[in-house]
Amino acid sequence: MNSGTPRKVKASMMNAIHDLPLLVARDEGFFADEGLDVEIVKTPGTGQRGADHQALRDNIFKRTMEQLYEQGECDQFRMCEWGIMKRAVESNVESGHRPAKIVALGSAMSTFAIVVDPKARIYEPEQLKNKPIAVSPFNGSHFTMLKMLDGFLTRDQIKWVNAGTHEERVKALRSGEVAAVSLMEPWISVAEKEGMRVIIESHSTRSEAAGEELDGPTLKKMFTAEAAAAEAIQNDHLKLSRILNAPPEPYTRERFDHTYQWTLGWKLVAPGATYENTVDNRAWQ
């Protein structure tokens, strides 16, 4: 145990699936063991039952979590890798935003799947050519859907639409409004329970971001606690195939180059970013 006054940190969370290591590290005392007092700030995503559209605003910096960070109400946050890439890049290459940097490859990898209604007689990804697929823009359901279909269709054949929250997407699929939906757990299981069919699924890696105010030693303690939480989840708490947790690790130049060029190729992120102005592995220095 660490002695002295615990270092206070505010970290945001969107839901239990994405942020399970954060919750376990707090509840099991792993943060406290590192001398940290971590306050978890809850922000709405699109996966909660009855979720509203705050996380679906076209301007990503007007979304609830990003607004909290912009206003200094949280110090650190995690999202899908490509969403963090967009937020980190654009906060550094565009003026008027609180800068954030990628500080780790994250500890939670949630599953996303492309789901169809069997009545549509769609059995393989190729059959989704030029057909509307519901996502939440610039979030994990969007980026992971593009990743999954990239090997089956050309980029101009992949069509996405904003059909709202996960719950609203499932309703849009049932009504025939869209040909397919991109969902994360537990909504994949909800859709399967309702008789829908999974066409393809993949884990979506998380990344972690923070402002300059959060120093490397504090981040290292946070990631040590999250690593202990990930091990506890896999060993003792939860053994579900669609939920995967791993220790945070440095965000490498190779990973940045690959992911940034991919998001840039889809015109999902602003040009002009470099590894140096977007990534800071200070937790490992």
Describe the protein in words.
It contains ten helices and eleven strands. It is an alpha/beta fold. Strands 5, 6, 7, 8, 9 and 11 form a six-stranded mixed sheet that branches.
Comma- or semicolon-separated keywords:
285 residues; alpha/beta; D-Maltodextrin-Binding Protein, domain 2; 2 domains; 6-stranded mixed sheet; 3-stranded antiparallel sheet; 10 helices; 22% strand; globular
Summarize the structure.
The chain is an alpha/beta fold. The protein has ten helices and eleven strands.
Overall geometry: globular
Order of SSEs, N→C? EHHEHEHEEEHEHEHEEHEHH
Low-confidence stretches: none
**Name of the CATH architecture of the largest domain:** 3-Layer(aba) Sandwich
- Structural class based on helices, strands and sheet pairing: alpha/beta
Approximate helicity band: 25-40%
The CATH top-level class label of the largest domain: Alpha Beta
Q: Please state roughly what percent of the residues sit in beta strands, choosing from under 5%, 5-15%, 15-25%, 25-35%, 35-45% or over 45%.
A: 15-25%
CATH structural fold name of the largest domain: D-Maltodextrin-Binding Protein, domain 2
Q: What is the number of helices?
A: 10
Distance between the termini: 23 Å
Describe how the helices and strands are arranged.
Layout: E1 7-13, H1 20-27, H2 30-33, E2 36-42, H3 64-70, E3 76-80, H4 81-93, E4 101-105, E5 108-116, E6 132-135, H5 140-149, E7 159-162, H6 166-175, E8 180-184, H7 187-193, E9 197-204, E10 206-210, H8 216-237, E11 243-245, H9 253-265, H10 275-278
Parallel strand pairs: 1-2, 6-7, 6-8
Antiparallel strand pairs: 3-10, 4-10, 5-8, 5-9, 5-11
